[in-house]
């Protein structure tokens, strides 16, 4: 999925759920941006590893990264109010059972800063 100039794809978001990943990839494809979800199969077959892998990375060509971030930012929606007692109960239940809670959510990844070069180009 290099852009023809040898540049690797850019990570624009990380999702913690298969439904969020497939919706994000379809939204990008609907706007003409070729995106892909990396570590999709691992997160599907071993969802409890999703926390350790930091979710599923959504990657797009570098020239479409900013447009993809703007599109996906609209997908997040307003924050939902949760009852803290219910959340605490389920967290304790998963902890007692020895399982991580089911992963969910979408997180936009900010653009990476360019790495400093150690050698001056001649």
Would you spell out the secondary-structure blueprint of this structure?
Elements: E1 10-15, H1 18-30, E2 36-38, H2 40-45, E3 56-60, H3 65-73, H4 84-97, E4 106-108
Antiparallel strand pairs: 1-3, 1-4, 2-3
Provide a descriptive summary of the structure in words.
This protein has a four-stranded antiparallel sheet with strand order 2-3-1-4. It is built from four helices and four strands, in the order E-H-E-H-E-H-H-E. With 122 residues, the protein is α+β, with helices and mostly antiparallel strands. It is globular and about 50 Å long. It has helices at residues 18-30, 40-45, 65-73, 84-97, and strands spanning 10-15, 36-38, 56-60, 106-108. 34% of the residues lie in helices and 14% in strands. It has one domain (10-108). The model has no long low-confidence stretch (mean pLDDT 79).
Q: How much of the polypeptide forms β-strand, as a percent range?
A: 5-15%
Element pattern in H and E: EHEHEHHE
Instruction: Round the mean pLDDT to the nearest integer and report it.
Output: 79
Question: What are the low-pLDDT stretches, counting only 5+ consecutive residues below 50?
Answer: none
The tally of beta strands, per DSSP, is 4
Overall tally of structural domains: 1
Number of helices: 4
